[in-house]
Design goal:
176 residues, mainly beta, five-stranded antiparallel β-sheet, 1 helix, binds calcium ion
Length: 176
């Protein structure tokens, strides 16, 4: 196939769900995080982050749904990324999931049935139940990079971070 016919990744959705903590126990709070990088920025310095407390300045990456407990049906957190609308300065986006550590150290092994999925339309790009990173407190899931022609490529990057709190994770997730 000619490379000029290659259609890159344009709009993706990241969904995350988990079961609530047992009755009477502190809630389990997981967060989807997206970090964006420009071509001139080092990989430990995201240009901006999108998560429950932070929006993208141009509205191209949106946390559509958030949860602090995992209660309810369907996806607990949902993020959409309109990569094709991202400014041309942006060449890389890394998406991950981090467990809040408010009540002591929590790893994916402590969370009941966590599941993340990255979709483009109805096509699943990647998915994980975090079993391979069960000892981690955070994990990257997906990396999107823009090539010279402006096309976005996708790469699954399931990598656990063993002792990262949310702040440390956002500083380290660009290293994948
Ligand atoms: Ca959350």
């Amino acid at each position: 196939m000619s490379s000029s016919l290659k259609r890159g990744v344009e709009k993706v959705e990241v969904t995350l769900k988990w079961d609530p903590s047992p009755l009477g126990r502190p809630p389990h709070d997981l967060d989807i995080v997206a970090a964006t990088y420009t071509s001139d920025a080092p990989s430990d310095r995201p240009t901006y982050l999108v998560h429950f407390d932070s929006r993208s300045p141009d509205g191209t990456i949106i946390l559509e749904r958030e949860s602090r407990t995992g209660q309810g049906f369907g996806s607990d957190e949902v993020m959409t990324l309109e990569l094709d609308r991202l400014g041309s300065d942006y060449v890389r986006v890394v998406v991950g999931v981090v467990i809040q550590q408010r009540e002591g150290r929590r790893t994916f092994a402590d969370i009941s049935r966590p599941a993340v999925q990255v979709l483009e339309g109805l096509v699943e790009l990647t998915a994980s139940d975090f079993a391979d990173v069960s000892g981690a407190t955070a994990a990257t899931i997906a990396e999107f990079t823009r090539d010279e022609s402006g096309t976005w490529d996708f790469r699954p990057v399931l990598r656990g971070f063993d002792d990262a709190d949310p702040q440390e994770f956002t500083e380290q997730m660009g290293s994948v």
